[in-house]
Amino acid sequence: MLRSKSLSSRMADIVLITILALVALTCILPLWYTLSLSLSSKTAAAAGAVALWPVDFNFDSYKQLLQDSQFFKSFWISIQRVVLGAGLNFIIVPLMAYPLSKTVKDFKGRNVLMWTLIFTMLFNGGLIPLYLTIKGYGLMNSIWALVLVGGAQTIVFNIILTINFFRNLPKSLEEAALVDGAGPWYILFKLYIPLSIPVLATVSLFSIVYHWNEFLYGLIFMTREEFYPLQTYIQQLVVSVDPSTMTEDQYKRMSELSNRTLDAAKIFIAMIPVLLVYPFLQKYFIHGITLGSVKE
Amino acid sequence: MKTKGFAKHYYLMLVPGFVWLILFSIVPMFGIVIAFQSYNPGQGVFGSEFVGLETFKYMFTLNDTMNVFYNTIFIAIMKIIGNLIVPLVFALMLNELRYIGLKRSIQTIVYLPHFLSWVILGGVLLDIFAYQGPINQLLGMFGMEPVLFFGRADLFPFLVVGSDIWKEFGFNTIIYLAALTGINPALYEAAGIDGANRLKMLWHVTLPGIRTTAVLLAVLSLGNVLNAGFDQIFNLYNPLVYSTGDIIDTWVYRAGLLNLQYELATAVGLLKSVVGFILISLSYYLAYKFTNYRIF
């Protein structure tokens, strides 16, 4: 590198690092504040005394949370949903991406099927038709409504990423396998899938995060609280505002009435699975996204 | 090559995925006929009376819906602009950073909010911007009166746009950073020999090097003009800010699922889907024309 190391350049470095660090800090502080709040006393939280550090440090809200059986039921529903949803995603994505990564020359029906797929991604009938369809299928209050509806809306994007990744794999590999008499199933499972860990890890991460975070389908397809996944539970019991709140005073009083330390504890616990998953998959998803979406 | 007879295996691989998409993406699309009916839940889609465009005519006479369209476009366009520029600036700054370890740590931190749901972040933001929250404490230190941030209709759209940019800027830098690493280092060396300083290199080498990516992202974001972000607004809004914060998706949810105006909610949702579909198709076409980009 021939970049100069002059004094002004070093000054620029310091300014740069300061700005970048401050911006990065804004991504952490709000979450840190939530943790502090959850470890403070109720009175301190209600008085707005908590800033960066917990006031009257205690674990009361976490002890109280342990008594809340619905929280854990919902947590378990979310875990099941993630396992089923991401598992299904992991199986279906390569199965669809492999044939669709072929050219029309190798697979005649390819383009029609591809456009159908794209169409399902770009167009939808809206919330009401979806709601009535699922009701018609008799899937209300079933976890499969959450797994299958959400999955169908996110899988096409994942398939496209994977198709683009497959197309970037060297052609000679498949040709060599064909010469050895390998069939399509062998090529997919023994050749393509093992070589596609970055993109499959990426789409799995997307699927896990999607199913963990999604709350709306829990709200509309589950008619009883006991079936709510975790985000829906938190949405309904912590975040959502009573639609009859019509004045500023009512809105102000609402946050005073709520149990902010317990709510903060619930929010913090719900963050943990995501905090645990994404840093470890970072090298994969950066690789997977850039290889799958940017083409030379 | 021995690929004869592979096609039937390709179709076999596609069957499970297509069955899934047909049942959960394509079948619900037919529900849009409700928008042209006087829908009677007892008689269903097949038994209800056909009324043509009545619901659409009615829709355009409602002040409510006009306001909702306006809010949606206003918020969405501000988000598009912010989400193009802020990540670009941040990526350029990160790119200037020569300490790889520090660079990677900052990246890991700024990706974090992208992976958290709006339920969680909604809860966190409502706490931080609460009447007695830390932001108001900070303002208090400068002798300012506390502000009821999320109860103020004039501030709401800007809080929404700002918090969306905050959530996504880190993740959105990924594509820019990939484009930046694609710039030939020899160009920097040549510029250095010619006596260019860092600012000159930025202007003459870096910016031209990522112009195509920036144009591509701008064109593709055209498809988001009607997506103001349901999850976010649903978790942040309240009746006090409906006048500026209610968007198509939140309105459809309330009209359809809370007030049971199925036809009206379906009609508004359908209008959004159709316009959105046209915009996305147009953006793909333009992206193909200007940058030769194809999604698959």
Can you tell me about this structure?
The complex is a heterodimer of chains A (about 300) and B (about 300). With about 300 residues, chain A is mostly helical. Chain A has 2 domains: about 5-60, no CATH class; about 65-295, MetI-like fold, CATH 1.10.3720.10. Helices cover about 75% and strands about 0% of the residues of chain A. Chain A has helices at about 5-40, 40-45, 60-65, 70-100, 110-120, 125-135, 145-170, 170-180, 185-195, 195-215, 215-220, 230-240, 250-255, 260-295. Chain A is globular, with a radius of gyration of 25 Å. The two termini of chain A are about 25 Å apart. With about 300 residues, chain B is mainly alpha-helical. Chain B has one domain (about 55-290): MetI-like (MetI-like fold). In chain B, strands 1-2 form a two-stranded antiparallel sheet. In chain B, helix 3 packs across helix 15 (about 260-290), helix 11 packs antiparallel against helix 15 (about 260-290) and helix 14 (about 250-260) runs antiparallel to helix 15 (about 260-290). The model of chain B has no long low-confidence stretch (mean pLDDT about 90). The chains are: A mainly alpha (about 300), B mainly alpha (about 300). Chains A and B meet through helix 1, helix 4, helix 5, helix 6 and helix 7 of A and helix 1, helix 4, helix 5, helix 6 and helix 7 of B. Chain A: Pfam families: BPD_transp_1. Chain A: It is a multi-pass membrane protein. Chain A: One of its GO terms (cellular component) is plasma membrane. Chain A: Keywords: Cell membrane, Membrane, Sugar transport, Transmembrane, Transmembrane helix, Transport. Chain A: This is Multiple sugar transport system permease protein. Chain B: This is Putative aldouronate transport system permease protein.
